Amino acid sequence: MRELLIRQKQILFFIIAGGLSAVVEIGSFKIFSMHVPHFFPREVNFHGVHYPLSNIFSTGCGIITNYFLSIWFVFERGKHSKTREFAYFIGVSFVSTLLSLGFFQIFYSFVFKDNINLICYTLSPEMISKIAAILLVSILNYSIKKKVIFNG
Q: Domain boundaries in the chain?
């Protein structure tokens, strides 16, 4: 029973840490997607890839936030050294970033075409696509980070 409670607590903390990291990632994506095109006009559509730099920069912000929240609140230290643990975390996050970028492109190009009005805020197709990609990749992230990186 205690193990079940600890596991549920860990999942809850992972969701909270992921949610906070997603807020950082989505917020920084909003900032980057508004400002980067002023410096790189092709950012909006770079050979069919929409907002590549904004996605990469914002995902990097989310990864760093998620790493620190994960080691402080979610997972116990694994059998790896801190350096190796961080390297594994970055490696998994790199693959997750590629998946997230791919899902973003699919969602933005084919799925989400219209704004969603939330009364107090309107979500653009870019933001909806980013949120959907984050949600999809987060399930994979939890499993891999728990089993491979933090060995728990």
A: 2-149
The pLDDT value recorded for residue 88 is: 83
**What count of Cα atoms within 13 Å lies in the side-chain half-sphere of residue 48?**
3
What would the pLDDT profile of 77-113 be if each residue is shown by its tens digit?
Answer: 667 677 888 888 888 888 888 888 899 889 888 888 8
Residue 34 near residue 9 (C-beta atoms within 8 A): no
Q: How far is residue 66's CA from residue 55's CA, in Å, rounded to a whole number?
A: 16
> Is the pLDDT higher at 110 or at 76?
110
**The token pair that represents 114 in the structure block:** 């219209």
CA distance linking residue 18 with residue 24, whole number of Å: 10
Per DSSP, the three-state class of 75 is coil
CA distance 55 to 71: 24
Cβ atoms of 13 and 74 within 8 Å: the answer is: yes
Query: What are the backbone angles phi and psi of residue 116, rounded to the nearest 5°?
Result: -115, 120
Non-local (6+) Cβ contacts of 148 within 8 A are: 88, 92
Write down the residue that tokens 């929240």 correspond to: 69
pTM of the model: 0.70
DSSP three-state, residue 47? coil
